[in-house]
From TrEMBL:
The name this protein goes by in its record: YbaB/EbfC family nucleoid-associated protein
Region annotation Disordered: where it falls in the sequence: 113-162
Taxonomic lineage: Bacteria, Bacillati, Actinomycetota, Actinomycetes, Mycobacteriales
Pfam families per UniProt: YbaB_DNA_bd
Length: 162
């Protein structure tokens, strides 16, 4: 009888996984369709796609009131603002996936005595990505904070030992 319960539990898990995959596919389509725009100085509007890639840049008729450095700065600021907005929208669209993932049973729940590998397999948080221009003080500081060659793991497929 308990084997029948195990089969039913496994089927429930597989059904839940199938539903989760269908949901992820639909949400990924919705996310892929996202865009966001930002306007800076009432003269520069930049639109980005779901990946934050600039897909359109528009200047108002009075753009010539700005000099080239001002235009460049406005374009950069508008692109950064639009990218931040589309990232926020993308997180909101994909939020149900995180909620559903938290409800899924773990291996420990399914197999008595199985160790919890969640802590072992967790990915460290990604470092902050600078929006500072090349050559700026902030970008230089971020570069020096990264791991030195001595701290990086050695070896691999391109190692001369192969």
């Amino acid at each position: 009888m308990s084997n029948e319960y195990a089969k039913n539990d496994l089927q429930d898990i597989l059904d839940g996984l199938s539903l989760q995959l269908r949901t992820i596919t639909q949400l990924q389509r919705e996310r892929a369709a996202l865009t966001a725009s930002a306007t800076v100085r009432k003269r520069v509007t930049v639109t980005v796609n779901a990946d934050g890639t600039v897909i359109e840049t528009k200047f108002s008729a009075d753009i010539d009131d700005l000099d080239y450095p001002e235009i460049a700065k406005a374009v950069t600021e508008a692109a950064q603002q639009a990218a931040a907005e589309v990232a926020r929208k993308g997180q909101a669209v994909m939020a149900p996936v995180s909620r559903n993932r938290d409800r899924m049973p773990t291996l420990t729940d399914l197999i008595p005595g199985m160790p919890d590998l969640k802590g072992e397999l967790s990915v460290p948080p990604a470092p902050h990505v600078s929006t500072a221009p090349p050559g700026s003080t902030e970008r230089g500081a971020a570069h020096t904070d990264s791991a030195s060659d001595a701290e990086r793991p050695r070896g691999g497929a391109t190692d001369s030992g192969w």
